[in-house]
Specification:
The protein is mostly beta strands. It contains no helices and 11 strands.
Length: 122
């Protein structure tokens, strides 16, 4: 089993900052990717920022480029999302996601955290 435990989130005013963190634990052989997705009521979950574990390359949703930064700690199997200059439209439930292999014989499987609410409001 693999577990993703998120922390951070909460209420922030427009223009403010928040940091989300996610720690992966359990039967981890290889982490392939870790990242953050978000979802609002009635909409599909979409990717916000993803990092490739092996080389640190990153992907960002266009609307968050320059405001959000994803970072990883390979030793601790954690990924963080620093969110600056937050806008009301950034408010959503944010989910940690990871592609993890549990052994050399298995390909990557998709794992999700429980989600953390981010509310941007004055």
């Amino acid at each position: 089993q693999v577990q993703l435990v998120e922390s951070g989130g909460g209420l922030v005013q427009p223009g403010g900052s928040l940091k989300l963190s996610c720690a992966a634990s359990g039967d981890i052989f290889t982490i392939h990717t870790m990242g953050w997705f978000r979802q609002t009521p009635g909409k599909e979950r979409g990717s916000v920022a993803v990092t490739v574990w092996s080389d640190g390359s990153t992907y960002y949703l266009d609307s968050v480029k320059g405001r959000f930064t994803i970072s990883r700690d390979n030793a601790k199997n954690t990924v963080s999302l620093q969110m600056n200059s937050l806008k009301s439209e950034d408010g959503a439930v944010y989910f940690c996601n990871a592609g993890i292999s549990r052994s050399a014989a298995l390909g990557p499987e998709n794992y999700w955290g429980q989600g953390t609410q981010v509310t941007v409001s004055s």
